[in-house]
Specification:
It is a single chain. The protein is mainly alpha-helical. The protein has two domains: 1-39 and 67-130, no CATH class; 133-314, no CATH class. The protein has helices at 9-48, 91-95, 110-129, 134-157, 162-178, 185-210, 217-230, 235-263, 280-293, 295-301. Helix 4 (134-157) runs antiparallel to helix 9 (280-293), helix 5 (162-178) runs parallel beside helix 7 (217-230) and helix 8 (235-263) packs across helix 9 (280-293). The chain is globular, with a radius of gyration of 22 Å. InterPro entries: Peptidase_A24A_bac (IPR014032), Prepilin_IV_endopep_pep (IPR000045), Prepilin_pept_A24_N (IPR010627), Prepilin_peptidase/N-MTase (IPR050882). This is Prepilin leader peptidase/N-methyltransferase.
Length: 314
């Protein structure tokens, strides 16, 4: 475990600025990565399946190249390419008052919130690790950034890309081996194994009992990654917290859906669509909560005393 060190103001400030920059990149990542995956899928379908047997998907023969670096950031309304002074994290949004300088279309508040949230997470990790523990601070900043990206992508698309979950898993094991995460390697290994198998068994049992898919494989990999970073002892409270939050949100959304159905007229009844709530955002939030508070807080809330399970990053 890490000893608590007095945070250095310059060190923490530098990480906050780094967080603003990474937060700006996360906005690009969250928006573009699912679209890049869709394009790759369509290309694989076009290569593997004869044209007359391909599923009916929209034809997009003149799509511009898309990557995390190209094209440059632009207004989603009018296509105006952002100049450098219009793309300064957080500051540009405030100066432009949340509107495009060309068409004056509204810019979503999520962009600056992601940048600010990432900056706060980075500053917190730097303060907790201390200026003498640069690798540890960088490791946990990376953990927080990837978790935030996964939560947003899953919320938007119900996808947890392997290109993020698998590197997060291996980085957790590697960080434990190097002593950067404060989690023993054996705890990280068992955390990854138990994390994956626990959700796999749960999803398999649900599918066997109902014939329906209740959880995606991305959730298995995300919990395995969380186990690798936080250790096996974090998994019970993590799952309890994530499941409780998911159930609470599910009840609220179900209530709204039922009220909307009740307001539908007899002539035009509203068909009640199946309610699907991605689990990834709740796993990510629970992982951050366990990082900050430690396992012991949740065990104590249940009246259990299972030893010294404080915050991993301290």
């Amino acid at each position: 475990m890490l000893g608590i060190t007095a945070p250095d103001a310059g060190f923490v400030g530098a990480f906050a600025l780094l967080g603003l920059l990474i937060g700006s990149f996360l906005n690009v990542l969250v928006h573009r990565l699912p679209r890049m995956m869709e394009r790759q899928w369509r290309a694989e379908v076009a290569t593997a399946i004869p044209a007359d047997s391909q599923p009916l998907t929209p034809s997009r023969p003149h799509e511009p190249a898309l990557s995390l670096l190209s094209p440059r950031s632009h207004c989603p309304h009018c296509g105006h390419v952002l100049r450098w002074h219009e793309n300064i994290p957080l500051l540009s949004y405030l100066v432009l008052r949340g509107r495009c300088s060309a068409c004056h279309g509204a810019i979503g508040a999520r962009y600056p919130l992601v940048e600010l949230g990432t900056a706060l997470l980075f500053a917190w990790c730097a303060a907790r690790a201390g200026s003498t523990q640069l690798p540890t601070a960088l490791a946990w900043c990376g953990f927080c950034a990837v978790l935030l990206a996964l939560a947003l992508i899953d919320r938007d698309t119900t996808l947890l890309p392997d290109s993020l979950t698998q590197p997060l898993l291996w980085a957790g094991l590697g960080g434990a081996a190097l002593g950067w995460t404060g989690t023993a390697l054996v705890d990280a290994f068992w955390g990854a194994a138990i994390g994956y198998l626990s959700l796999w068994l749960l999803a398999t049992s649900f599918h066997w009992a109902t014939g329906r898919e209740g959880m995606g494989h991305g959730d298995f990999k995300l919990l395995a990654a969380l186990g690798a970073w936080l250790g096996w002892a974090a998994l019970p409270p993590l799952l309890l917290l994530a499941s409780s939050l998911g159930a609470l949100v599910g009840l609220v959304l179900l209530g709204r859906q039922r009220r909307a159905s009740a307001r539908a007229t007899d002539e035009e009844p509203e068909k009640e669509a199946p309610l699907y709530i991605p689990f990834g955002p709740f796993l990510a939030f629970a992982g951050l909560a366990l990082l900050a508070l430690g396992h012991g807080v949740f065990f104590a809330a249940l009246g259990l005393n299972l030893g010294d399970f404080g915050p991993v990053l301290k």
